[in-house]
Amino acid sequence: MRPQDIATLASHCARCGARDRSICSAIEDEDLNHLAVHSQHIDVAAGQCFIEQDELARDFFVVTEGHAKLFTLMSDGRRQVNGFAGQGQFLGLAANERYAFSAEALTPLKLCRFSHDGMRLLTAQFPTLEQRLLSEASNELVAAQGRMLLLGRKTARERLASFLIERGAGCHQATTIELPMTRTDIADYLGLTIETVSRTLNALRRDGLIDIDHITRIHLRNRHAIAALASGEAA
């Protein structure tokens, strides 16, 4: 790669809106040229998969713009939505030889792709990056444990409340939640039927907890009460 190309890519990394919240924040600005050498910027159209379940896991991905859904297909064709990814999230860490899930763009998506070999070189050169990856792995484990509780013990109201709080995570004062996924995706993620999702959202609206501004946007009228419901502290 030519030096001027590396400089251009490093400049792009410095301006990336996902930099502060992604693994890339572990690398200082003056070292971004090393990051740029091992990364590739790709665009994915809405509805297109960029990770295919059971394919060889050769790459890691950082979402730099847009939203994606992660899902697993069973042998009989049934689908389980495992999660949703947005700006700054790192995908592929839990993969061994093959990906255990598929990932599909919900909206037009921008990604930064790293090969496994490239990431190994980067972590060897930058120990802070390896520490950040360990933190990501820990966060994935905590999320998996929370999901077990969500599916195993929580009621439909508690599941919807948990989902809304989860969508607003990191923005403690946020009152408007954007939902780029379909109601079917939400139902698959929460282990509910689409009818139950719609009925429960309408019940939360009647109770004065939310307003449904649009099918893709929900306004939280009482975030504290919704958080209490999500944690099982309210009926």
From TrEMBL:
The segment(s) forming the Cyclic nucleotide-binding domain are 23-95
The cellular component terms of Gene Ontology attached to this UniProt record, alphabetical and capped at eight, are: cytosol
Domain named HTH crp-type: which ranges? 154-224
User: Would you indicate the residue range of the signal peptide?
Assistant: none
Query: Mind listing the GO molecular function terms for this protein?
Result: DNA binding; DNA-binding transcription factor activity
Specify the superkingdom.
Bacteria
- Which Pfam families does the UniProt record give? cNMP_binding, HTH_Crp_2
Q: Which UniProt keywords apply?
A: DNA-binding, Transcription, Transcription regulation
* InterPro entries the UniProt entry points to: cNMP-bd_dom, cNMP-bd_dom_sf, Env_Response_Regulators, HTH_CRP, RmlC-like_jellyroll, Tscrpt_reg_HTH_Crp-type_CS, WH-like_DNA-bd_sf, WH_DNA-bd_sf
The protein depicted here goes by the name Transcriptional regulator
Provide the species name: Neoasaia chiangmaiensis
Taxonomic lineage is: Bacteria, Pseudomonadati, Pseudomonadota, Alphaproteobacteria, Acetobacterales
